[in-house]
Automatic annotation (TrEMBL):
Residues 35-204 form the N-acetyltransferase domain. The keyword Ribonucleoprotein does not apply. Coiled coil: none annotated. InterPro entries: Acyl_CoA_acyltransferase, GNAT_dom, NAA60-like. Keywords: Acyltransferase, Chromatin regulator, Chromosome partition, Transferase. SUPFAM superfamilies: Acyl-CoA N-acyltransferases (Nat). It comes from Daphnia magna. Belongs to the acetyltransferase family. NAA60 subfamily. Its EC number is 2.3.1.259, 2.3.1.48. One of its GO terms (molecular function) is protein N-terminal-methionine acetyltransferase activity. It holds the Pfam family Acetyltransf_1. Signal peptide: none annotated. It catalyses: L-lysyl-[protein] + acetyl-CoA = N(6)-acetyl-L-lysyl-[protein] + CoA + H(+); N-terminal L-methionyl-[transmembrane protein] + acetyl-CoA = N-terminal N(alpha)-acetyl-L-methionyl-[transmembrane protein] + CoA + H(+). This is N-alpha-acetyltransferase 60.
Length: 227
């Protein structure tokens, strides 16, 4: 099934589907304690569904909402302000051999055959709370999770994003994600095929398999599709 995100657009679930924001808070916040992070629970399902319908131009099956609000394999984190959800990050950590074929080149399978990877399905923030640090708080929480001592076998975090989503691309690059590959016709948006990118952040000593060629390919892709 497919996920779509204001910041990241990932599609691993159908084929199998971010500004670090600064440390200051929005004028909407009177103190840091006003914004809380917590994991989703089944009672959030209706509110999550409403937010996804508002944020993303695709429809998700009911099973997806049940999974992300109840299945512990998902790292489903919410930013909450005055008892309302204002931001969501949905991610998972999976075995590297479970990476879809279009993203197999993220890691060298011979070197990292027994490792895990983090995959960000979706990251979204309510419009009135964007550019205020909420997305970064959510992302930083997941980064802290996958870099804990017990998660050192996690060697990369990756995601998918529409090539035309310049705000998301700037956000991820600000957080040190690097363009890895171009995915032609990866998305279906309003009945039209759209291209995507895979972005990767290497962690815990992980690195790409392309060696000295990797920076060159990254520049070629950026020149062709972003500039």
């Amino acid at each position: 099934m497919s996920s779509f995100n204001w910041y990241s657009n990932s599609k691993d679930s159908n084929r199998d589907n971010h500004d670090t924001t600064s440390s200051y808070l929005s004028p909407l916040f009177t103190s840091a304690a006003d914004l809380q992070l917590r994991f989703l629970c089944p009672s959030d399902l209706d509110q999550v569904k409403d937010l996804c319908k508002e944020w993303f131009p695709i429809q998700y099956p009911e099973a997806w909402y049940r999974d992300i609000t109840s299945d512990p394999r998902f790292y489903s984190l919410a930013a909450v302000y005055q008892s309302k959800l204002v931001g969501l990050l949905i991610a998972e950590v999976k075995q590297s051999d479970a990476i879809n074929k279009e993203d197999k080149g993220i890691l060298d399978g011979r070197m990292y055959s027994n490792c895990t990877v983090g995959y960000i399905l979706s990251l979204g923030v309510c419009s009135t709370f964007r550019r205020q640090g909420v997305a970064s708080l959510l992302l930083d929480s997941f980064l802290n999770h996958v870099t804990q001592s017990e998660n050192q076998i996690c060697k990369a975090i990756y995601l998918h994003v529409l090539t035309m989503n310049s705000a998301a691309i700037r956000f991820y690059e600000k957080h040190y994600f690097r363009l890895h590959s171009f995915l032609p016709y990866y998305y279906s948006v309003d009945g039209k095929c759209k291209d995507g990118f895979t972005y990767v952040l290497y962690i815990n000593g992980g690195h790409p398999p392309w060696g000295l060629l990797y920076p060159f390919l990254e520049k070629v892709l950026k020149y062709r599709f972003i500039h």
